[in-house]
Amino acid sequence: MSNTTSSGASNRFNMGKVKSEREWERVRETKTKEEWAPTEHTMEAQDFDNIIKKVVEQKRDIQTGANVFYKIPGSFAIFGEIEYLVERFNILSVDEKKIKIHWKPTPKNSAGNSTATAIQNPARTRSAYWDEELVAPSTVKLQEKIDELQEKVDDLMEKYNSVQEAVCKMQEKKDNRDQQ
User: Fold this and answer.
1) Could you tell me where the Basic and acidic residues compositional bias lies (predicted)?
2) What is the DSSP letter of 70?
3) I need a labelling partner for 73 at 20 to 30 A (CA). Which of 28, 52, 54, 147 fits?
4) What is the dihedral of CA 164, 66, 28, 74, to 10 degrees?
């Protein structure tokens, strides 16, 4: 599977097709958007390898667990025939190629219908979320600011995880010294 859409846009990353053993759970719905609960997926080997490569390109260590978050700017996953934007994700198991995806809210158009892009429509290869005909420029700027703040949160989480790791190592050393 290709990392970019057929339009060749390099700022978009296709995480691959996802399947779900259970129905997605809508956690919130307003007139303008739908929000979905995070979902767990076992990825195809090639898709999982592409995700890992992107994480490594960001000079991040691969860590598993629900408390370690990763973000690939412009990433989306395909469920059925529709592209959904990915906010961030966790790698739950490298061996099982299992990830947990936290979805970006899906905007609705003025008729109250989801604007997630059906990939079967070749005229709409980009996600409608970023289509300037459907989203006011101020909304795009707001989303850019949200993404910028989310990156800062991700950086802080990464630093927090590093500090936690260092504290654990120091505690292990102390415990070893106390045992001797």
Assistant:
1) 18-36
2) B
3) 28
4) 90
DSSP 129: G
Could you tell me if residue 147 is left (phi over 0), alpha (psi between -120 and 50 degrees) or otherwise beta? alpha
Judge contact between 158 and 165, C-beta under 8 A: no
CB atoms within 10 A of CB 78: 17
Residue tagged 């195809």 (tokens): 44
How does pLDDT run along the chain (180 residues), one tens digit per residue? 344 443 444 578 889 888 876 777 888 888 888 888 898 999 999 999 999 999 998 888 889 988 999 999 889 888 877 888 899 999 999 999 999 999 988 877 655 666 665 544 333 333 443 444 444 555 667 777 887 888 888 888 888 888 888 998 999 899 888 887
pTM: 0.57
Among 40, 91, 36, CA closest to 67:
91
Question: Strand 33-36 to strand 26-29: parallel, antiparallel, or no bridges (unpaired)?
Answer: antiparallel
